[in-house]
């Protein structure tokens, strides 16, 4: 690193420097113009010391700046990313060289098995690249599957592949650095994240892709996806849609069946008419038992099939004996009413009755699991007062027609002080400390982009910690005022949305994304939380979902209520999991606000039953349930390598696609690329010279030397 410095004068003219020197000389002349018993040569030397010291001190009064310039050369980074997923090693082809005269950028399809070498040989060749490039390049090595990690490896045990995620992490890690080239060794198959060719555009460097795997699909039958409603009603038929896929099995008969508790409940056969077969097969099932029902969907294997692990899928359906009824009350028509109803009824578990408050007659609190008060309150209404006394969950939605004084009297969760009936536009800002239920990351990001709602203008009280799901953002200023909160208040669950204009959210989401998923999820999760204990169970335990993927953390929640149906978490809650083999796993819940949470980590693949127990006072409580850990078969669902994707990524970035047998060409290609070179960064800094310690030391040395010589001559 080179380093240079110079002095600049800033707003002061540089002509003051000679003036300061002249001032120092004048001062020294006045001091030493008379002999005073000192030899002439010593007087001249002393005068020089005093003149320099005085001149430097005078210069410091002008506050000159020291300009330092550093030149820092940075070698080009060569980032090597190796796909460590199972598919790379599982679907290898014989090691052969590409046909004579065929370049790696050719769009012509290769014959089966051409241009490939073993996955482990690829790792060895990539490891040698650092030595081949030498000291002029900074080579960094990584491997990736779902996430990216340092170094190359030959494990090939990744169960998921996210190529776009790997590229993004590399881009983020080396942002504003001299990335010369990216080498991406993969088969082009991904089952997580977005299309990697779009993420590759964010890397401003050529990407050299190493085409691994085999372009010929293997003989295999599999279940690509199962589309179904997670709830059904007792005595009803319901349909599941199975995406059946088959490769290299033309002429075979595919036999699909669905079993419940070992008993076949549905089946269907279809002839496979191509070697790349995809078809959605609808199957009608009957909900004859209440509770969580487990259905196993399977495809009968055929001869010489690659794998049978992807021939089976397990789903759980909650069979209910009745829909939960929700009462939606309002004082006057508003487009939000339709939005609320549509968003809630998108979940077949709920049935919404919307009514004007003035037309409400002869309604019993026991008929409804939740009441939503849209810009109205229970003040002066005996029927609604009976709902509050029965501790039926309530969701308040405020707007321009809301009576804030009556609202403050109905509940104590949120108090709003407003001098006038004014409204202001507020954006939604999702919070990080809300834990009562979880919104997906995509929904949270969408909500943050939604247009503003109209909220009452005034001062808002601080809600209980962790109860605010959304906070108000006024313009670009984030506030502490809540926009959407949920909490348990004296045994009654309450939700408050302090704003109107949900119709804007619905239109904006459909315009941007073509669906209403975020708004539907927000209402589904909110209603599920508010009605979670509608049957007044004292102790409930429920997992975040019924089926977890292999390697996914198993999350459960627990709630314990006292005699007044108030949430408490004083006693410990223990839980024990038991798998099909009889192996047991024991855990202790952690306390979270007024309830309990458990992160059991990852559990082995299999079917599990669980039993949770606690004791409140002298009364014991227990809860039981089931969940499933299914194996991740994503890596064997695709066997044909995607060379087209790799070629596109390489071409659009100015790189090149190579086959494993051509890796030894990489070093030469990188050296010949004139854009891959060392970059010298110039670092300029300006500092006041008075901050330089060496200036102070110089002044002290000059004055000390002067004093020592005068002392020696006996003039001090």
Account of the 3D structure:
- The chain has 716 residues and is of the alpha/beta class.
- The chain folds into five domains: 100 residues, no CATH class; 176 residues, Rossmann fold (3-Layer(aba) Sandwich), CATH 3.40.50.410; 101 residues, Immunoglobulin-like, CATH 2.60.40; 205 residues, Class I glutamine amidotransferase (GATase) domain (Rossmann fold, 3-Layer(aba) Sandwich); 92 residues, Immunoglobulin-like (Sandwich).
- The chain is 24% helix and 35% strand.
- It contains 16 helices and 38 strands.
- Strands 17-16-18-19-26-25-24-21-22 form a nine-stranded mixed beta sheet. A six-stranded mixed beta sheet has the order 5-4-3-6-7-37.
- A hairpin with a 2-residue loop joins strand 25 and strand 26.
- Helix 8 crosses helix 13.
- The protein starts with a strand and ends with a helix.
């Amino acid at each position: 690193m080179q380093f240079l410095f110079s002095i600049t004068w800033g707003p002061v003219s540089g002509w003051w420097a000679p003036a300061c020197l002249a001032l120092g000389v004048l001062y020294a002349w006045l001091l030493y113009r008379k002999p005073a018993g000192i030899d002439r040569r010593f007087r001249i030397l002393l005068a020089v010391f005093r003149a320099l010291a005085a001149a430097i001190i005078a210069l410091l009064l002008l506050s000159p700046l020291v300009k330092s310039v550093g030149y820092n050369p940075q070698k080009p980074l060569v980032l090597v990313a190796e796909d460590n997923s199972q598919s790379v090693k599982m679907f290898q082809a014989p090691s052969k060289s590409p046909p004579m005269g065929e370049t790696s950028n050719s769009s012509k399809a290769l014959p089966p098995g051409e241009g490939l070498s073993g996955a482990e040989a690829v790792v060895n060749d990539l490891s040698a690249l650092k030595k081949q490039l030498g000291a002029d390049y900074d080579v960094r090595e990584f491997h990736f599957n779902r996430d990216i990690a340092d170094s190359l490896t030959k494990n090939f045990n990744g169960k998921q592949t996210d190529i776009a995620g790997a590229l993004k992490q590399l881009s983020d890690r080396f942002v504003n650095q001299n990335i010369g080239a990216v080498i991406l060794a993969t088969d082009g198959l991904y089952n997580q994240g977005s299309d990697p060719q779009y993420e590759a555009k964010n890397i401003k460097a050529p990407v050299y892709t190493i085409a691994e795997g085999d372009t010929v699909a293997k003989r295999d039958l599999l279940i690509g996806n199962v589309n179904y409603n997670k709830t059904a009603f007792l005595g009803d038929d319901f349909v599941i849609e199975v995406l059946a896929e088959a490769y290299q099995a033309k002429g075979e008969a595919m036999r699909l069946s669905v079993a419940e508790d070992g008993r076949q409940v549905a089946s269907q056969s279809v002839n496979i008419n191509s070697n790349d077969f995809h078809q959605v097969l609808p199957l009608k099932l009957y909900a004859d038992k209440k509770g969580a029902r487990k259905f196993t969907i399977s495809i009968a294997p055929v001869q010489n099939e690659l794998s049978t692990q992807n021939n089976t899928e397990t789903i759980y359906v909650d069979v209910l004996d009745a829909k939960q009824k929700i009462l939606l009350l309002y004082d006057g028509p508003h487009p939000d009413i339709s939005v609320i109803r549509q968003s809630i009824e998108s979940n077949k578990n709920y049935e919404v009755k919307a009514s004007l408050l003035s037309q409400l007659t002869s309604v019993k609190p026991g008929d409804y699991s939740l009441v939503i008060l849209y810009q109205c309150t229970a003040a002066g209404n005996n029927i609604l007062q009976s709902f509050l006394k029965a501790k039926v969950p309530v969701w308040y939605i405020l707007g321009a027609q809301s009576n804030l004084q009556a609202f403050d009297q109905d509940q104590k969760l949120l108090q709003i002080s407003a001098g006038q009936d004014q409204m202001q536009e507020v954006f939604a800002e999702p919070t990080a400390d809300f834990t009562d239920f979880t919104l997906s990351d995509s929904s949270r990001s969408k909500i943050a982009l939604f247009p503003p709602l109209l909220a009452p203008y005034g001062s808002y009280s601080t809600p209980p910690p962790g109860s605010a799901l959304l906070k108000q953002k006024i313009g670009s200023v984030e506030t502490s005022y809540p926009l959407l909160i949920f909490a348990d208040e004296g045994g009654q669950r309450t939700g408050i949305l302090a704003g109107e204009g949900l119709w804007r959210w619905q239109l904006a989401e459909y315009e941007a994304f073509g669906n209403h998923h975020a708004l539907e999820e927000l209402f589904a999760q909110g209603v599920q939380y508010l009605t979670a204990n509608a049957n007044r169970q004292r102790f409930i335990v429920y997992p975040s979902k019924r089926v977890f993927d292999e390697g996914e953390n198993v999350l459960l929640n627990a709630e314990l209520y006292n005699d007044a149906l108030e949430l408490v978490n004083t006693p410990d809650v223990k839980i024990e999991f038991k798998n099909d083999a009889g192996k047991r796993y024991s855990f202790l819940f952690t306390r979270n606000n007024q309830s309990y949470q458990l992160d059991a980590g990852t559990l082995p693949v299999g079917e599990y039953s669980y039993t949770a127990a606690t004791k409140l006072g002298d009364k014991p409580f227990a809860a039981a349930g089931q969940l499933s850990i299914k194996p991740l078969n994503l890596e064997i669902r695709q066997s044909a390598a995607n060379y087209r994707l790799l070629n596109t990524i390489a071409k659009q970035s100015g790189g090149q696609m190579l086959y494993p047998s051509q890796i030894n060409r990489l070093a030469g290609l990188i050296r010949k690329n004139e854009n891959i070179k060392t970059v010298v960064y110039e670092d300029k800094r300006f500092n006041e010279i008075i901050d330089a310690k060496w200036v102070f030391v110089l002044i002290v040395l000059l004055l000390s030397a002067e004093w020592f010589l005068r002392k020696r001559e006996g003039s001090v």
